[in-house]
Amino acid sequence: MFTPLRGGLGRSRRSGLASPGDSVGSGLEGTPHFAPPGMMMTDRLNRAYGVSFLVAGCAAALWTLVHPWGTIAGPEVGGSTQWAVSHTFHFVAGFFASIGLLGLAQRQSGAGRLERVGYLTAFAGTVMFTGTGIVTAFIWPLLANNAPALVELSGPFFSPPHPVIGITALGFSVGYILFGVALANADVIPKGAAAILVIGALFLLPPPPPLSPVPWLLFPVGGLFVGIGFISIGLAIRSGRVERVAPSGVPHG
Q1: Residue 98 belongs to what H/E stretch?
Q2: Contact status, residue 123 vs residue 103, Cβ threshold 8 Å
Q3: What is the DSSP letter of 162?
Q4: Sequential pLDDT tens for the chain (253 residues)
Q5: Are 49 and 103 in contact (CB under 8 A)?
Q6: Distance (Å, rounded) from C-alpha 49 to C-alpha 65?
Q7: Which among 36, 95, 186, 245 is placed 20 to 30 Å from 7, CA to CA?
């Protein structure tokens, strides 16, 4: 004689659907449900990518805020402890932003053209930014103390400005301007945070004095704003808002 199963379990077995009374974290009664290993790994990577952007954001702000004020030329500036600390943050910001950008790579297969172009440009610019950070943090002080003529305003790096300076600034700034706009359009980051990121990238586009006539204030404010934008991207990665997009470029719900 058939004896019906009690509770919602019997209904679930007959219909193949979970009853309202079933717990979310279980399969058969008393059997816990475990997330697939791939999903667990993705969650861990997203946390790591998100933290990388949070670190990059803090470092980007500190890079420009603690930088010697008013100029980037001269051995007295390049050989100072303040310069070394500032450009160590420069390197850290670029290094961790490069890692964090990997957390946005998977969504590019379904993203719109603007986001894909912005992502690739920002990634290339960030890698170059990291490379210049290695030079300015660890090599520049040695040059300032042992070959000071090289880092003078009249020296070979600044007269005329080395092309790498302009190419790096262009790739980094244009990349994050395009990428910030695209992420805001896709509702990955708030539009206010995207606006701050775009303004910061614009402020960092022209070389700081004395290489260009712009006010020095643009440099520290630009780094601070880019740092805020990086933190916003990091929070979006950690929340899972960047994981998937539809082929049209619209995020899945």
Answers
A1: helix 81-101
A2: no
A3: P
A4: 444 444 444 444 444 444 444 444 444 455 555 555 555 667 788 889 999 999 999 999 999 999 999 999 999 999 999 999 999 999 999 999 999 999 898 888 888 999 999 999 999 999 999 999 999 999 999 999 999 999 999 999 999 999 999 999 999 999 999 999 999 999 999 999 999 999 999 999 999 999 999 999 999 999 999 999 999 999 999 887 776 554 444 444 4
A5: yes
A6: 25
A7: 36
Q: Which residues pair with 245 in a beta bridge?
A: 251
Question: How far apart are alpha carbons 135 and 145 in whole angstroms?
Answer: 14
Instruction: Give residues with Cβ within 8 angstroms of 147, minimum separation 6.
Output: none
Alpha-carbon gap, residue 243 to 253, rounded angstroms: 11
The answer to whether the pTM exceeds 0.85 is no
Q: Are 176 and 122 in contact (CB under 8 A)?
A: yes
Q: Any idea which residue has 């995207």 for tokens?
A: 194
Q: What are the structure tokens assigned to 122, written together?
A: 């920002």
Place of tokens 């998937």: 244
- Structure-block tokens of residue 252: 């899945």
Measured distance CA(166)–CA(186) in Å, rounded: 30
The gap from C-alpha 202 to its chain's centroid, in whole angstroms, comes to 16
106 token code pair = 């998977």
